[in-house]
């Protein structure tokens, strides 16, 4: 079900991560510290301590600080996703994985030491403050609608605004805040690094959402007169929208990797059930309706794995891969949702209960079709790109 690892080092790391998730993490899936807003901080610390002892904490970042390439990362993150708790335990979970990637690309040496290193060590969590309340006309899939502002006052920036669906804000120690800067007639944004918790950043509430795998859940945030010194600007002033794409293109793909592992596990459970459960005098798998669903699962999983690896190769080739990551996000999220849906159907009543992890995988993958850009927005973006290319080719 997993495509071959591209290098020997990625095979060794991926095998160790898979063994850890299966042997150590999966037994925690019924832990009482799992709540509607994700695993508790106590559970996160316990799991990461075990991952650290097993040598699989933050496995995509090597001891010398270098990063596995995207194709190697795919091999590792797929295995980490075999349990919804796996990425949390081994520190490959969103938003930390994407924030670590961005800080590694854009941060200054001092910023990396202060903000990145605790994340890599698994000692802290982070949050990415970009999405805003829709009812206030704020930014969601369209970052040009950014309402949060940052104004330079002497040698500090003053940030004001509200943010929505901020994953992991509760309990995070590091924040990356996106705010509108520059002239009023031009959409420009800047990213700011902040220590959390901060008195100027207030959690109004943690939303009740369909998913429950990410520590801290998803929060509604008020930012009131947040002062940020110049040395905590991440990258260059007014380059925040460009940096968002630097982060989001691989982050979308990382979601695909992690949820591939989860749906592969759901398929294992459904296939195991279908080969032991009997109905109408024969095994479920011997009924065409069930057997064909399992066959369709294999096809969707294989196609998803190939799409993930193809996009990872594009990113490794030096392209930002915005279009490619959009294609992968659409194709993989839709395919994995079909797999999860079939697994629920095969399990019947068991599939809608919480006696197996399949019910949670179904919920998580349904949310994935919206997070990091809904399917329809990515298709629209691809259609615009196609139009530009076709019109350029005709000279119009």
From TrEMBL:
Residues in Acyl-CoA dehydrogenase/oxidase C-terminal domain copies: 238-386
Domain of life: Bacteria
Domain Acyl-CoA oxidase/dehydrogenase middle: 128-208
Domain Acyl-CoA dehydrogenase/oxidase N-terminal: residue ranges: 7-123
Keywords on record: FAD, Flavoprotein, Oxidoreductase
Similarity field: Belongs to the acyl-CoA dehydrogenase family.
Quaternary structure, from the entry: Homodimer.
Protein known as: Acyl-CoA dehydrogenase
Taxon lineage: Bacteria, Pseudomonadati, Pseudomonadota, Betaproteobacteria, Burkholderiales
């Amino acid at each position: 079900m997993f495509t071959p690892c591209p290098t020997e080092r990625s095979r060794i790391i991926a095998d160790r991560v898979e063994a850890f998730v299966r042997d150590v993490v999966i037994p925690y899936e019924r832990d009482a510290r799992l709540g509607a807003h994700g695993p508790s901080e106590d559970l996160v610390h316990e799991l990461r301590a075990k991952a650290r002892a097993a040598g699989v904490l933050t496995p995509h970042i090597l001891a010398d600080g270098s990063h596995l390439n995207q194709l190697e990362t795919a091999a590792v993150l797929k295995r980490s996703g075999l349990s919804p708790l796996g990425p949390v335990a081994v520190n490959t979970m969103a938003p930390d994985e994407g924030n670590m990637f961005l800080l590694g690309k854009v941060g200054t040496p001092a910023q990396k030491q202060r903000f990145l290193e605790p994340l890599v060590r698994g000692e802290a969590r982070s949050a990415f403050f970009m999405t805003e309340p829709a009812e206030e006309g704020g930014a969601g899939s369209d970052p040009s609608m950014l309402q949060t502002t940052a104004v330079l006052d002497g040698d500090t920036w003053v940030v004001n605004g509200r943010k929505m669906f901020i994953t992991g804000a509760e309990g995070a120690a590091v924040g990356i805040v996106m705010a509108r800067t520059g002239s009023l007639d031009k959409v420009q944004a800047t990213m700011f690094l902040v220590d959390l918790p901060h008195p100027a950043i207030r959690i109004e509430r943690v939303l009740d959402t369909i998913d429950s795998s990410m520590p801290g859940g998803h929060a509604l945030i008020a930012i009131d007169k947040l002062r940020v010194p110049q040395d905590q600007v991440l990258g260059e002033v007014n380059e925040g929208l460009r940096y968002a794409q630097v982060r989001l293109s691989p982050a979308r793909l990382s979601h695909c990797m992690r949820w591939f592992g989860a749906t592969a596990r759901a398929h294992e459970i459904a296939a195991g059930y279908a080969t032991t459960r009997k109905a109408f005098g024969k095994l479920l798998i011997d009924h065409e309706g069930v057997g064909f669903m399992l066959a369709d699962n294999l096809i969707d999983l294989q196609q998803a794995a190939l799409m993930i690896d193809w996009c990872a190769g594009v990113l490794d080739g030096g392209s930002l891969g915005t279009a490619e990551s959009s294609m992968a996000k659409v194709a993989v999220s839709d395919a994995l949702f079909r797999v999860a849906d079939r697994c629920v159907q095969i399990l019947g009543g068991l599939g809608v209960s919480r006696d197996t992890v399949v019910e949670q995988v179904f919920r998580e993958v349904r949310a994935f079709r919206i997070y990091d850009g809904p399917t329809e927005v990515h298709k629209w973006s691809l259609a615009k790109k196609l139009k530009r290319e076709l019109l350029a080719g005709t000279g119009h």
